[in-house]
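Researcher: Let's run the pair from yesterday's discussion. Sequence first, then tokens, for each.
Model: Starting with the first of the pair.
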Amino acid sequence: MYKRRCQAGYTQAMAWLWGQSEAPESSATAREIDRFLVFYDSLAPALVVSYERDSLRLRAGGSLSDALMPAALAAHDPSSPELRVTFDRALKASAAHLSLNAQASGVQLLPSSQVLMEVKCAQAIPLWLSGLLSELHLYPSSFSKYGRAWTLFASMPSTQTLQALAC
């Protein structure tokens, strides 16, 4: 999935998305979002997915053992400038509390003992990381937090869905 972003504060972004102000920046991405908002004029929030994230990057000149220590978070590996590994936990979805400022609540998307790991890189995964992932029997798979939430809600009996949506 390719993501394009616009930079804006929460209040500014919400005012823009609700049609109460102009785009926060003049960019191709902002114009694309403006066209999207016009085309789908009845859009409204339907689901919030929340999670806690740790992000890991190697410090310049750092070793793999350094990367596994908290002090190395938000560091940089010069041989892989676009390499980042994230760990998402406490994944929850709610269709009742739709404010992004609200306390995380809702239905758990994964058991609390599981963590979602994403490896993001601009080019090929470095050989050392590929070897480590293979050694740990970690292989690529597809996972969508939002997709999992809708699948979970759709599979619940209607009364259970209503209770889950009220979380």
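Model: Moving on to the second of the pair.
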Amino acid sequence: ALAVTAGEGPIGAIDRVCRLTGGELGQELARTLAVARSGVPLVEALQGLADRTSLDVLARFVAGIVVATERGTPLADVLRAQAADVREAGKRRLLEAGGRKEIAMMVPVVFLILPVTVLFALYPGLVSIVRLTQ
């Protein structure tokens, strides 16, 4: 989104992303860029990328670019909105995972720590009662 906002075209922006990132996604983007530079329209090359990877996030990215190019919507705005959506989805996944971990942490507290604490609280009183009855 930043590269497109700065005036770079979509192919130049994807090229910049390819140079700055690594891993499988960077390789797939580089492959898509090579296909686009060989004469295939960028939209078709990106749709091929979405089909090859079968990632929902990438499919939404490609759909956003397709819609932006067909309707003439500013691409930078579409990319910014998609980036915000991806960040929000990541935050939501982290919160959900944290909630599950919180529940998992309650099990040892309830079954291990709480009984020992109750035992320490009741033991002096029980000892006193036993001594009084003797």
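Researcher: Give me one sentence on the second I can quote.
Model: The mean pLDDT is 88.
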